[in-house]
Amino acid sequence: MVGTLTYDVPRRDSGTKRQRIEGRPPHRGRVSPRPPNAPTTLHTYEGPTQIAPSNRFAVVKLRFEIPHDFSLFAFTRGHPELAVLASASQRLPDGQCLAEVDIAGPRSSEFTEDLRRLSGIVSVARMGSIGPLTRYFVTLEAPSYLTVANKFRVLLRFPRFFQNGFFTVEAAGRVSQLKSMIQELRRLSPQVEVQRFGTNCMRAVPRSLSARQYDLLQKAVTAGYFEVPRRVSLTALARYLGRSKSTISRNLALIEKALAEASVANPG
């Protein structure tokens, strides 16, 4: 896979020419430096080195500064040691949102009142804790970045990750819609970084992994079960999920087996 940045460079005469900068020099010709005022038409992506048609679906991974009018900007800036993950969200008719928010880090279970005092937060309830991870049920005013995504009919995937004033998310949609959304986001937050751009919209999950297994894998990763050293024990993970330790142990072993077999079968 070679990352590619493609943009239009104005010619001295009429018209434009397409200039491509790749991760390695081309076989022929010379790579020209990017002109300072050249308008970006395609952003960095991973995948085949080809220009994606504007009506083709793609997935882009973005990292940008949280808009300052969104309450999580102040909260994550004030607690840079915490990782905040939105694992589910639902839009309400009155413009508000319901969300499951996981906070991972020291004293993660002690932030109910801190969250309630944030502007734009309507209500907060603590759902449960597992080791350093606590899940909150939050009602809040819809953030501006979500309004922008809805405007251009772009899907923001879960989980959505917030830390130290920055937001990381995968967005899916047509190439033309993604580009329009990125341009609009840059009006809200000048620091919009495109970390990955690809036209393969399928997540890298083996077909043999069921929806229930993938859900368990996501929860175990979020809880820190696979970190080294582990942030949460198997016993604590099983207790949090309301299932027996032996069942969780067996299911995780089957997941690891499926992932290992898929990795060996598809090394690329």
**Class of secondary structure makeup:** alpha+beta
What is the helix/strand order?
EEEEHEEHEEHEEEHEHHH
By CATH reckoning, the class of the largest domain would read Alpha Beta
Quick one: overall form? globular
As residue ranges, the low-confidence spans are 1-51
Strand content: 25-35%
Counted by DSSP, the helix tally is 7
Helix content: 25-40%
**CATH-defined superfamily of the largest domain:** ACT domain
Number of strands: 12
Major sheet details? 9 strands, antiparallel
Rg measurement, Å: 21 Å
Write down the domain tally.
3
Give the N-terminus to C-terminus distance in angstroms.
9 Å
The average pLDDT value, as a whole number, equals: 79
The CATH topology name of the largest domain reads Alpha-Beta Plaits
CATH architecture grouping of the largest domain: 2-Layer Sandwich
3D structure, described in words:
The chain has 268 residues and is of the alpha+beta class. It has 3 domains: 1-65 and 144-202, 2-Layer Sandwich (Alpha-Beta Plaits), CATH 3.30.70; 71-142; 211-265. The protein contains 7 helices and 12 strands. The strands form 2 sheets. Strands 4, 5, 6, 7, 8, 9, 10, 11 and 12 form a 9-stranded antiparallel β-sheet that branches. Helix 3 (144-151) runs antiparallel to helix 4 (175-188) and helix 6 crosses helix 7 (245-265). The longest helix is centred in the C-terminal third of the chain and has 21 residues, at 245-265. It starts with a strand and ends with a helix.
What is the element layout, followed by pairings?
Layout: E1 4-10, E2 16-22, E3 40-45, E4 57-65, H1 71-78, E5 83-91, E6 96-104, H2 112-116, E7 121-130, E8 133-141, H3 144-151, E9 155-156, E10 160-163, E11 166-174, H4 175-188, E12 192-198, H5 211-223, H6 234-241, H7 245-265
Antiparallel strand pairs: 1-2, 1-3, 4-11, 4-12, 5-6, 5-10, 6-8, 7-8, 9-11, 10-11
